[in-house]
Amino acid sequence: MFDEIQFDRMKRLPKYVFAEVNELKMAERRAGADVIDFSMGNPDGDTPEHIREKLIESAQKTKTHGYSVSKGIPKLLSAIADWYKRRYDCDLDPSTECVATMGSKEGYAHLAYAVTNPGDVAIVPDPTYPIHEYSFILAGGNVAKFAIEYDEDYKLNEDKFFVDLERVFKESSPKPKFVLVNFPHNPTTVTVTQDFYVRLVAMAKEKRFYVISDIAYGDITFDGYVTPSIMSVPGAKDVAVESFTLSKSYNMAGWRVGFFVGNKKLIGALQKIKSWLDYGMFTPIQVAATIALNGDQQCVKDIVDKYNHRQEVLLEAFDRAGWHIRKNQASMFVWAKIPENCVHLGSLEFSKRLLKEAGVAVAPGIGFGVYGDEYVRIALIENDNRIRQAARNIKEFLKQFQDEKK
User: Fold this and answer.
1) Distance between CA 69 and CA 189 in Å, rounded?
2) How far apart are CA 27 and CA 30, in angstroms?
3) How are beta strands 240-245 and 210-214 bridged, if at all?
4) Pairing of β 240-245 and β 258-262
5) Which of helix, strand or coil describes residue 306?
6) Are 29 and 35 in contact (CB under 8 A)?
7) Helix, strand, or coil (residue 363)
8) pTM for this structure?
C-alpha cells in the first residue's frame, strides 16, 4: 500500500551526478586504487590557527553550549556588516540586512523556500552550481535558462548576457521574479566587471525583479583581478541580496558558515523561515567566524597564493600531457574543455573512464547543466606532486585516443 504514496517534489530532482561519481570513486578506493581527487571543492588545508583557537576557547565556556540564534549572534552580524564596509564600502544594518546561514547551500535552499510561490520563474544562467537551480525547483518554482558566453580568458560577454536576459524575459510567462548570478562563477570561473552589476541593478528596477548574487569565490582571485559586488552599486539593496561563505577563503568548509546581505524584505524572509527551521550554528563556531572576518587577513592571502600556484603547476603539467587549458582569474577551480579526441564521450563518460583508467577524479560538466557537457571541473585541492602524478596518468590515458584517431 505504501507504494501508492508519491513524493512528487522528489520526482523533479534528477539523480545527483556528483553522487554517481563519488560512488565510483569510493568503489575504486575500496578496490585498492590510488585516486587523485579533483572532483569536489573541498579545501585540503588547515583552518587558520587563530580561528581554531577561538573555537576551542569559546567551546570551553559552558554557557555557549545551549541553543544559539538562528539568524546569527549579534557580534557575527556586525562582523559581516563591517566586512562589507571595508571591502565594498557598503553600509548594512546588521539586524535587518544581514543573516548568517549554515553555509551558502543551506541559505539558498531556505531563501528560495521562503520567497518562491508555486509557479514563480527564476532565471539561472547555465551551467550553474546545482543548488542555484534546484533551490527554486524544490520550492515549487520554475527555472528559465540561457547559456553564459565568455571569452578565452574566462571573462563574461556582458553585452550578450543582457541580450539573452532580455530575450528570456520576453519569452517567459509568468514574468520572472528572480535572476540569480554567480561571479566568480562556479563551475566556469568566469568573471565580470563592476559595470555588469550597474546594468543589472538598473534592469532589475526597470523590469521589477530581484537579483540574488553569489560571490562565494570572491576572495580567490589572481593577477590583480578584484571581485566586484552588486552591493557597491547605489540602490542595489532595493532589488538585491548577495551571499558569501567562509568555506573557501578560510578553509572552513566543514564548519558550514555563510551569510546573505542586502534587501530587507528578502533578508527578513530568510531570517523568519530560519527561526522556524533551525536554532543556528553552534555558538563557538559563530564566535570563531567573527574572528575570521575581523582578524588578520594574511591567512586569506596565503590560501589564494596556494591556489594560484597550484593552477600554474596544473596547467603546465597537463599541457605536457596533451591537455591544454587556459589560466583563469578567479576561484579554486579549473574549467577544462575535454581534449578534442575525447569530446565525443561527453563529460560523464569521460569522467568515469578517467577515474577508472587513470585514477583521476574530476567533476563532469553535465552535472552543472546541459551547456557544460564538453567540460569538466577540476578542483585545486591536491598538492604539486599529486598534480604532476595525475598529469602522467592522464598522458597515458590520452594515448589510446590518439591511437584511435590514427
Assistant:
1) 34
2) 5
3) parallel
4) antiparallel
5) helix
6) yes
7) strand
8) 0.93
pLDDT at 400: 87
What's the alpha-carbon Rg for the chain, to the nearest Å? 22
Where do the domains of the chain lie, and which CATH numbers do they carry? 2-46+299-405 (3.90.1150.10), 66-294 (3.40.640.10)
According to the model, what pLDDT value does residue 9 have?
66
Which helix (H) or strand (E) segment holds residue 401: the answer is helix 384-405
The grid coordinates of residue 388 equal: 604532476
Quick one: which H or E segment has residue 150?
none
- Block means of pLDDT (10 residues each) for the chain, length 406 residues? 59 70 87 91 94 97 93 97 97 98 94 96 96 94 96 96 97 96 97 98 98 98 97 98 97 96 98 94 97 97 98 98 96 96 93 94 94 96 97 94 63
d(CA 148, CA 164): 9
Nearest CA among 304, 334, 303, 341 for reference residue 318: 334
Amino acid at 266: L
